[in-house]
Amino acid sequence: MSDIAALLQQRLQSLHPEHLQVTDDSASHAGHAGAKSGGHFDIVIVTSAFAGKNRLQRQRMVYDAVGDLMHHGIHALSMRTLTPEEI
Question: What is the pLDDT of residues 28-51, one digit of tens each?
Fold first, then answer.
């Protein structure tokens, strides 16, 4: 696991996930112009903290949790944000 992926795992613990999967897809984007400014990551997070929240609110919660990583180390972040009932 890359250092950034490990930091994502660590910071997203603040949302108390029941399931969290962080995948570093950076290698498949090698040579892409934006890849120089950071990696490409995919996350799947399942937490009851998302209950009653719409998709945009959930994404904002994730962005708030990862903080400055979005400006240093991450070029692209794809996410699936689910509640336990939505699995």
Answer: 756 655 555 679 999 999 999 999
